[in-house]
């Protein structure tokens, strides 16, 4: 796992080595073990490395056997051994045992077609010094990030946005359309980001840059076109087991110890069960708990630890700790966020790293591919309710979804209708499954400043998303539509970024995701809905498969969404001083995104009642994170903007 950056300048107006070195030093935490820069007449590309495979031989930048292609690579190619064997049969020779060399040799042999052969999580750049052309690519579901910009005749790329601001002429400025998307969908729609002229390569996409400009192309897309409605449960269990077993097996490949996160749910328990089967022994596991009981899952974590006899470490997270570390989270996410749930993940990766471990397997992705989230069940109930919108019985089904929320125990049909009845009968809307979520977050736009509203004009994020829907979207069943939206928007843009890559790599830890093997994703997309969401029984196939292999209480427990406190973090008397500053009139006016008078009315209402609702919490977190982002990247006042000096940097001059 690594961080990469580079600048292409066909005019060669400057010596870019010092700038690329600064870009890399800003993200030194992504690769503290090694660093290197390749410098040629028109391209300067670099890498900071977290050494996991071929620790001694896998230094970057690295070339193919001919010396024509030079690569910098962030990620892992899990099937590199099989690909290496194939290349050797074709006459390729290797000087290292790294997956990086396999990748560059594969690209030299197949070009962009090599992407279809890769099973991994990656973002990489290859410079072709003969054709003088740059090739960038990102993995199928966007596990690893890759950003780029073009200014003053130069093209630059990096693993994180903050690197790009090290180049003269690349100035951080909020992108109104990007902010509107974030305040609606919780993330920007790629290639948009929160910043003007800063773009993100989309998952499953590659980019070619040469003297003719930029050309992008999709090489993979999530599709639900090939549903195998005749597939039996027994057949599905066998095929899922084979795929998942291989997925875990190849993700255990490393020259360092591999551990696992343990949440107390079926996903992490399944992952641990397969690890124990493939590599028996005492596995190191890690988890986080909360002082506030409503968020804590420690009971189930303890059951899983006892069942598998893992060597376990955990910590209990307080609201005060979340508040103090939230600015660090924003520094790493580089996007406004509406939740504090990323912060405990930052603590968790710190605990992993302090334990001397660099790699963890986690259960992310299972909820998306097997319909585990409550949003899928919620949609099913709302559609059922919409057939009899006046019913006082049908909305009561919603209470079954959130038994861990105290307010749901007291909810009556009128309260449920007020909260869940938004556009209840609009069942033909392509976004029906997500209308309620996006409406709640979109309330935030009521508090935007007049200046930003003027900049936005009549722009509609919903209209833009409509134009991006797959051609066959309307032919899919309602569950498939909901899964596509959740996977392509929320999972990639928020979950795998703000709670995945960024929080792990902040502490030099690599997360690996067996449920996100593309073969497993494609298989689950072909499953009939009944094998994923059976009635209101989520992840039906996985639960049946894992009977007798994980604790019974874990297999039968109701899905509990991972959450972290907000009101006690930002709205208590013990909240850190920066919270008051970020919500102040002076700072709000300086940033210019929100209207302070509008915000103040919400804060006064909360102070008077002592209670904040979900929409209030999202608003406050969005405001604070937006203002922190401004302070950190535009003012550079946070104290975090301290690039680390790279050690043992390898320079390859190729003139």
Provide tags for this entry:
655 residues, alpha/beta, Glutamine Phosphoribosylpyrophosphate, subunit 1, domain 1, Rossmann fold, 3 domains, six-stranded antiparallel beta sheet, 26 helices, 18 strands
Give your account of this protein's structure:
Strand 6 and strand 7 (133-138) form a beta hairpin. The model has no long low-confidence stretch (mean pLDDT 94). The longest helix is centred in the last third of the chain and has 28 residues, at 478-505. The chain starts with a strand and ends with a strand. It has 3 domains: 2-220, Aminohydrolase, N-terminal nucleophile (Ntn) domain (Glutamine Phosphoribosylpyrophosphate, subunit 1, domain 1); 233-370 and 485-556, HUPs (Rossmann fold, 3-Layer(aba) Sandwich); 572-634, no CATH class. By secondary structure, the protein is of the alpha/beta class. Helix 9 (319-333) crosses helix 26 (614-634) and helix 12 runs antiparallel to helix 18 (478-505). The strands form 3 sheets. A 7-stranded mixed sheet has the order 10-8-9-1-3-2-18. Strands 4-5-6-7-11-12 form a 6-stranded antiparallel sheet, with helices on one face. 50% of the residues are buried.
Helices and strands in order, then pairings?
Blueprint: E1 2-9, H1 17-26, E2 34-39, E3 43-49, E4 62-63, E5 69-77, H2 80-89, H3 99-110, E6 120-128, E7 133-138, E8 147-151, E9 154-158, H4 161-164, H5 176-185, E10 199-200, E11 205-210, E12 213-218, H6 233-251, E13 258-261, H7 266-278, E14 284-290, H8 298-308, E15 311-317, H9 319-333, H10 342-354, E16 359-361, H11 366-369, H12 374-386, H13 406-409, H14 413-420, H15 435-442, H16 450-456, H17 461-466, H18 478-505, E17 510-512, H19 518-525, H20 540-545, H21 552-556, H22 567-570, H23 577-582, H24 585-591, H25 596-609, H26 614-634, E18 649-653
Parallel strand pairs: 2-18, 13-14, 13-16, 14-15, 16-17
Antiparallel strand pairs: 1-3, 1-9, 2-3, 4-5, 5-6, 6-7, 7-11, 8-9, 8-10, 11-12
Helix pairs in contact: 2-3, 5-15, 6-7, 6-19, 9-10, 9-26, 10-18, 12-18
């Amino acid at each position: 796992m690594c961080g990469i950056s580079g600048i292409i300048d066909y005019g060669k107006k400057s010596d870019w080595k010092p700038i690329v070195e600064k870009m890399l030093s800003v993200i030194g935490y992504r690769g503290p073990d090694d660093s290197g820069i390749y410098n040629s007449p028109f391209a300067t590309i670099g890498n900071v490395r977290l050494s996991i495979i071929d620790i001694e031989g896998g230094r970057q930048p690295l070339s193919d056997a001919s010396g024509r292609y030079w690569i910098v690579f962030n990620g892992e190619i899990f099937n590199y051994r099989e690909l290496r064997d194939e290349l050797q049969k074709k006459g390729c020779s290797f000087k290292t045992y790294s997956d990086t060399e396999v990748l560059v040799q594969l690209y030299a042999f197949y070009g962009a077609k090599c992407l279809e052969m890769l099973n991994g999580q990656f973002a990489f750049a290859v410079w072709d010094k003969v054709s003088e052309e740059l090739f960038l690519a990102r993995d199928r579901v966007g596990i690893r990030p890759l950003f780029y910009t073009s200014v003053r005749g130069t093209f630059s790329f990096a693993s994180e946005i903050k690197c790009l601001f090290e180049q003269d002429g690349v100035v951080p400025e909020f992108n109104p359309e990007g902010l509107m998307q974030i305040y609606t969908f919780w993330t920007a729609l790629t290639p948009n980001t929160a910043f003007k002229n800063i773009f993100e390569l989309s998952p499953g996409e590659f980019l070619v840059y040469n003297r003719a400009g930029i050309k992008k192309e999709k090489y993979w897309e999530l599709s639900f076109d090939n549903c195998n409605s005749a597939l039996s449960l027994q057949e599905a269990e066998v095929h899922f087991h084979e795929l998942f077993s291989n997925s875990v097996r190849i993700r255990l490949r490393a020259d360092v110890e591999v551990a696992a996160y343990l949440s107390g749910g079926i996903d992490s328990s399944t992952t641990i069960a397969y690890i124990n089967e493939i590599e028996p022994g005492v596995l190191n596991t890690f988890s986080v708990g909360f002082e506030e009981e409503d968020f804590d899952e420690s009971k189930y974590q303890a059951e899983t630890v006892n069942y598998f006899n893992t060597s376990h470490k955990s910590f209990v997270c307080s609201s005060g700790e979340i508040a103090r570390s939230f600015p660090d989270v924003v520094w790493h996410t580089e996007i406004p966020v509406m939740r504090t749930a990323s912060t405990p993940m930052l603590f968790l990766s710190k605990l992993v790293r302090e334990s001397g471990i660099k790699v963890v397997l986690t259960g992310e992705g299972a909820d998306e591919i097997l319909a585990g989230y409550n949003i899928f069940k919620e949609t099913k109930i709302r559609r059922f309710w919409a057939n009899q919108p006046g019913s006082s019985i049908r909305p009561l089904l919603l209470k079954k979804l959130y038994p861990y929320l105290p307010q749901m125990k007291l909810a009556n049909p009128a309260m449920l209708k007020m909260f869940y009845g938004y556009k209840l009968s609009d069942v033909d809307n392509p976004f029906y499954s997500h209308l309620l979520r996006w409406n709640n977050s979109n309330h935030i736009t009521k508090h935007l400043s007049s200046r930003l509203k003027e900049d936005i004009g009549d722009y509609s994020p919903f209209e833009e998303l409509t134009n991006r829907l797959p051609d066959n979207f309307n032919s899919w069943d309602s569950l498939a539509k909901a899964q596509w939206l959740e996977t392509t928007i929320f999972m990639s843009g928020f979950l795998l970024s703000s709670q995945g890559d960024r929080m792990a790599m902040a502490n030099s830890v690599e997360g690996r995701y067996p449920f996100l093997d593309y073969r497993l994703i494609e298989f689950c997309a072909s499953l009939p809905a009944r094998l994923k969401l059976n009635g209101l029984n989520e992840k039906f196939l996985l639960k049946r498969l894992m009977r007798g292999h994980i604790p019974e209480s874990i297999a039968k427990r109701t899905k509990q969404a991972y959450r972290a406190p907000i009101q006690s973090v930002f709205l208590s008397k013990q909240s850190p001083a920066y919270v008051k500053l970020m919500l102040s009139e002076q700072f709000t006016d300086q940033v210019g995104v929100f209207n302070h008078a509008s915000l103040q009315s919400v804060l006064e209402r909360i102070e008077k009642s002592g209670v904040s609702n979900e929409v209030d919490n999202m608003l406050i977190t969005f405001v604070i994170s937006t203002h922190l982002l401004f302070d950190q990247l535009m003012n550079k006042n946070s104290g975090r903007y301290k690039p680390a000096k790279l050690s043992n940097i390898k320079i390859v001059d190729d003139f």
